[in-house]
Design brief:
392 residues; mainly alpha; 2 domains
């Protein structure tokens, strides 16, 4: 019963806000209509006046004369009309601002919801416009991808998932009278119905931790798949490489992590059999998809390669823009979540050191060894205390 009463009151408050917004738009239309009519009348009167002056008499041929000086009274009338228009608009804006303050005092919860959706909608439309601009540029020239900034690459990587998530809410809320139901429901369940543009900073961290914990459940499956292929003939043929890779997996099994130099020395294993993306077993591919937050339905290997190539391009963009040290704390936190590390309660120095190890490996990767980047969340973060803290 309490939830029903809250929902009715919240819907009523949102209805008030919608009616005020429509009234504000109507007032702007009226002001614009009056201004347009006034301009048309001025143009018509000036045209008729010029026509009367240019008409020749029957007794003499008209001689060219300089145009008559403008009447001071006409200029004074135009200035007066313009000042009246400015006064009306300024008074109306003062009224709107004062009314918003009144709504803030009487309906703080409804105004909070209103601001969340207004700001989120503006950010979403801005990012969608930027995303389609990037898509059109990349479509005509593949080399444009390597010229984009880090922020543009991150937007290009994250926007498809955000648009897919917000699409059902936008469709349902556009139906007649459906917004009275969808807005309160979306405000109550933002993680399921909205994208990050409508989340607060606290919600972004909280939801990122929940998604990250779900992804970490697949780390053990990926690690077991790596161990199963350790004794294959393709690995055992090179004894030195087999010894180094066995040492790297033993470090993970003993609660440590292999050094980036050891991982880079094992890079040939990811250029062909057994760890290239085309040689992985289906169960291994499915575990990698879930580890990186993707579904395991169609085009599984192609989507993994595309995801790894985007992360690789972002790493190169970080180096072009000055390195990991130039990132802010929020940017480093987002980068860690994307690459498989829980950065909550970590110091900036620790996040920077871990990202530097990742970028060091990423710079040695090419198009034939992108599979290594897909396994780096296990090789570099399998035993991190911040990840284990999510389960204990």
């Amino acid at each position: 019963m309490t939830v029903r009463v809250f929902r009715r009151s919240l819907c009523g408050q949102i209805q008030v806000l919608v009616s005020e917004t429509l009234a504000r738009q109507k007032m702007h239309e009226v002001v614009n209509s009056v201004t347009f009519t006034h301009q048309r009348l001025n143009m018509f009167s000036s045209a008729s006046h010029m026509k009367q002056q240019s008409a020749p008499t029957s007794s003499q041929v008209p001689s060219p004369e300089p145009p008559p000086p403008k009447s001071p009274s006409g200029e004074h009338g135009g200035i007066k009309q313009k000042s009246l228009h400015v006064t009306v608009v300024s008074r109306y804006m003062e009224y709107v601002n004062s009314y918003i303050k009144i709504l803030d005092q009487k309906f703080p919860a409804a105004m909070h919801v209103y601001r969340i959706f207004m700001v989120g909608t503006k950010e979403l439309l801005r990012d969608i416009k930027e995303y389609f601009r990037l898509v059109s540029n990349i479509k005509w020239d593949d080399q444009v991808l390597r010229q984009l900034t880090r922020k543009e690459l991150e937007l290009y990587q994250s926007m498809p998932k955000d648009m897919l998530k917000i699409f059902p809410f936008l469709v349902l809320s556009s139906l007649p009278f459906a917004n009275y139901v969808m807005f309160p429901v979306a405000y109550k369940y933002p993680r399921q119905l909205l994208c990050k543009h409508f989340w607060t900073l606290q919600q972004r961290v909280e939801f990122a931790m929940l998604n990250h914990r779900k992804r970490l459940l697949n780390q053990r499956a990926v690690f077991r798949s790596l161990q199963l292929q350790l004794d294959m003939q393709a690995v055992k043929s090179d004894k030195t490489l087999h010894k180094k890779w066995s040492h790297a997996l033993a470090c993970l099994g003993s609660g440590q992590h292999p050094r980036p130099e050891i991982v880079i020395q094992c890079l040939p294993l990811f250029r062909g059999d057994p760890y290239h993306i085309d040689y992985l077993m289906p169960s291994h591919v499915n575990a990698l998809l879930r580890l990186h937050g993707m579904h395991s339905m169609w085009r599984r290997r192609n989507r993994l390669v595309h995801h790894a190539s985007l992360i690789h391009e972002i790493d190169l963009a970080i180096l072009r823009e000055g390195g990991v040290e130039t990132l802010t704390q929020d940017e480093m936190r987002s980068a860690c979540f994307l690459r498989g590390l829980n950065p909550v309660n970590m110091r900036s120095e620790d996040m920077c050191a871990w990202l530097s190890q990742w970028v060091k490996i990423s710079t040695q990767v090419d198009e034939t060894s992108l599979s290594l980047l897909l396994h780096c969340p296990v090789l570099l973060a399998y035993n991190k205390p911040s990840n284990w803290a999510l389960f204990h």
